[in-house]
Amino acid sequence: MSERPFLLGLTGSIGMGKSTTAALFAEMGIPVWDADAAVHRLYARGGAAVSAIGELCPDAIQDGAVSREALKAWIADDPSALRRIEAVVHPLVAADRAAFIEAQGVAPLVVLDIPLLYETGAEAGLDAVLVVTAPPEVQRARVMQRPGMTEAQFETILAKQVPDHEKRARADHVIETCSLEQTRAEVQALVDKLKVAHA
Questions:
Q1: What pTM was estimated for this model as a whole?
Q2: For residue 198, is pLDDT > 80?
Q3: What domain range includes position 69?
Q4: Are residues 16 and 53 in the same domain?
Q5: Which of 132, 191, 159 shows the shortest CA–CA distance to 11?
Q6: How far apart are CA 3 and CA 86, in angstroms?
Q7: Separation of alpha carbons 193 and 81, rounded Å
Q8: Enclosing H/E stretch for 50
């Protein structure tokens, strides 16, 4: 058995079923690290990013936590804001991820749920990447069901993400998430395959 877990990156464009797929891995007892949840922890009261963000933009700190709305307003006003925020937050997220992996000890497989995996170059250091996908009409229907979502917002989000066809071409594994049962079966098959291959 290898000295560290097999690191499987999980990603997919908005509305492709990534959160559902991550939950299926967790149901099967596979440790799952969630990049979005890590950022929420870092931004929460007492989180590691609060003081650093406060130095960059004091107005972004409200009730001892980082206000995402205030950050969005700052990013809209200042073209350099996003780069400065990322310079602070990315190393903290990387440290959170490393600590999570370390805490899993000899677990054979760890899933790293990273929405912007290819956009941020996070595939470096992973053993494989799983991309979840669905037909465009399924994706659009799922996203438009989200509270407050508009067509314009959806198009803006899509424009910032690596296109689905490119993600699939770069992935080591692809799962289509049209049906929950099919997705569950494919996740189980992948877990079995990876555990066998890397035991």
A1: 0.90
A2: no
A3: 36-103
A4: no
A5: 132
A6: 31
A7: 43
A8: helix 50-56
Same domain, 98 and 115: no
- Residue type present at position 28: M
Check if the beta carbon of residue 5 is closer than 8 Å to that of residue 100: no
Give the pair of three-digit tokens for residue 125: 């250091």
Rg (CA), the chain: 18
Same domain, 20 and 94: no
Render pLDDT for 102-153 as a digit per residue (tens, 0 to 9): 999 888 999 999 999 998 899 998 999 999 999 999 999 999 999 999 999 9
Q: Answer yes or no: do 67 and 25 share one domain.
A: no
**Domains identified in the chain, total number:** 2
Q: How is residue 13 written in tokens?
A: 């464009």
State the Cα torsion 175-180-185-190 to the nearest 10°. 30
Residue 139 and residue 91 in one domain? no
Both 182 and 112 in one domain: the answer is yes
